[in-house]
UniProtKB/TrEMBL annotation:
Xref: SUPFAM superfamilies: FKBP-like (SSF54534), Triger factor/SurA peptide-binding domain-like (SSF109998)
A single MF term (Gene Ontology): peptidyl-prolyl cis-trans isomerase activity
PROSITE patterns: PPIC_PPIASE_1 (PS01096), PPIC_PPIASE_2 (PS50198)
Span of the signal peptide: 1-21
Protein name, per record: Peptidylprolyl isomerase
Organism field: Hymenobacter ginkgonis
């Protein structure tokens, strides 16, 4: 349970059930205007300027909610709430187009790669993911591309509207004092967990083998073989290999520096020498320039890490652990100085709760690998080095630290200030979004299918 008004909570639920979810959705009540007698194209439920909401989108979310409900019944206004949340997102996109709010291809590609890596880890392998959806990874990414771009644009717009909103301690207390006593949530056991991550280092022998193989492939291309054919056969970049190594067009600053620097020295048809980046080793072929953009294809090889390489990371972590246990350095300082996990190293090594951004996480929501590790640990203990796979699929080692273990309790300002503060901030940001919607709701053309005419869409908020 969270400190979020019921109406906002409902809108959030359905917004987050779509691929176009926003972190926070406005509390504005929405309602409809449609030119009399005008019909929409079949399949389209709502048009917001050039943005559309499809009936299939609405029914897809309804099906998800029915599956979750497991026969317990659904709210009678379910479809209206879904339509409201989707239209809020479309209004955000429509205004982003007017305000020229965009995101780069590089950012979209990075987010697509991150999601694909996550999906692959969840199912076990790229092959299993492709079999599950009966599509190659490249097609799966392309299917998601427009949705991911829209979501990132929405996030940019929301940050533009409410990103600078803050709350004071007084506002947090006032917010908590207004929560009815019988609505104050009861939190289950929560823990704070820190980690220090060190990747397994690729040894020189593996690096030299990758370089030698790429040089051999380069010679084969120069001798007349097709770069695209060799990329399909040998490249370890699943997103581009199926397209003969083709990456598409990018502008300056959108690719990693090493790759870009090598690419920009080439002329159409030329190949680079072997280039090393954070992703591995590349052989690059330049295709063409268009204005300030350029296109390339590449063959990527990732040198394999072995047990001996992971042992090096384990030895380093064991030394760090010994220093912490001897109080020669704090865990937070060690995480900042040595951990390669950027998401946690700047926060004293503490893992973040994705729900509220805080460091305390419900015990029953932990990753099983962490849960079974810390289940028998005492507060203050640090594990020996453990095998770990990073979000981008690299082999690594890590140590885990149990900083705190908070027993079940009813929420209070002393123990749960961070959560209450986040809830108060969410409410204040929602009000800022309400104001924005109120100012912009009449600036878009809205067309609604007859079956959704009873829903209230883009009308003024009446119950602030």
């Amino acid at each position: 349970m969270q400190f979020i008004p019921q109406r906002l909570s409902a809108l959030l639920l359905f917004a987050l059930g779509t691929a176009l979810a926003l972190p926070h959705t406005s509390q504005a009540q929405l309602g409809i205007t449609r030119p009399r007698g005008q019909q929409l194209l079949d399949g389209i439920a709502v048009k917001v300027d050039n943005q559309i909401v499809l009936r299939s989108e609405i029914e897809g979310i309804v099906a998800q909610e029915e599956a979750r409900a497991q026969g317990k019944g659904l709210p009678p206004d379910l479809r209206c709430k879904i339509v409201q949340s989707l239209v809020l997102n479309k209004l955000m996109l429509a205004r982003a187009e007017v305000d020229s709010v965009t995101v780069t291809d590089a950012r979209v590609n990075s987010e697509l790669d991150r999601r694909m890596n996550y999906f692959v880890q969840q199912v076990g392998s790229e092959k299993k993911l492709e079999e599950m959806y009966n599509k190659p990874l490249r097609v799966l990414k392309e299917d998601l591309r427009s949705q991911v771009r829209d979501q990132l644009v929405q996030q940019e717009m929301q940050d533009k509207i409410s990103g600078k909103v803050t709350v004071t301690p007084r506002e947090v207390k006032e917010y908590f004092d207004k929560v009815p006593k019988d609505s104050i949530p009861y939190f289950s056991t929560e823990v704070e967990i820190g980690q220090i991550v060190i990747p397994a280092q690729v040894n020189d022998k593996a690096k030299q083998a990758a370089i030698a193989q790429l040089n051999d492939l380069r010679a084969r291309v120069l001798a007349g073989e097709s770069f695209e054919t060799l990329a399909k056969q040998y490249s370890q970049d699943p997103g581009s290999a199926v397209q003969g190594g083709y990456l598409g067009f990018f502008k300056k600053g959108e690719l990693v520096p090493e790759y870009e620097a090598a690419s920009r020295k080439l002329e159409p048809g030329q190949m680079s020498p072997v280039v090393e980046s954070q992703f591995g080793f590349h052989l690059i072929q330049f295709i063409e320039r268009k204005g300030d953009s350029y296109s390339t294809r590449h063959i990527l090889l990732k040198p394999a890490t072995g047990a001996a390489d992971a042992n090096g990371a384990a030895i380093k972590l064991a030394r760090i652990r010994t220093q912490i246990l001897k109080d020669s350095i704090s865990f937070a300082k060690a995480a900042k100085d040595f951990s390669t996990d950027k998401a946690s190293s700047g926060n004293g090594g503490l893992l973040a709760n994705r729900q509220d951004g805080g460091s305390r996480m419900p015990l029953d929501k932990l990753d099983p690998a962490i849960f079974f590790t810390i289940d028998t640990m005492k507060v203050g203990h640090i594990t020996p080095p453990l095998p770990y796979r990073t979000d981008d699929g690299k082999d690594a080692m890590r140590i885990l630290y149990l900083k705190s273990n908070t027993p079940p309790h009813q929420a209070n300002l002393l123990d749960d200030y961070q959560k209450i503060s986040q809830a108060a901030l969410t409410q204040k940001k929602s009000r800022a979004l309400d104001e924005w919607y109120e100012q912009n709701r009449t600036s878009v053309y809205l067309e609604v299918a007859p079956e959704y005419a009873q829903c209230k869409i883009l009308t003024a908020s009446t119950d602030q």
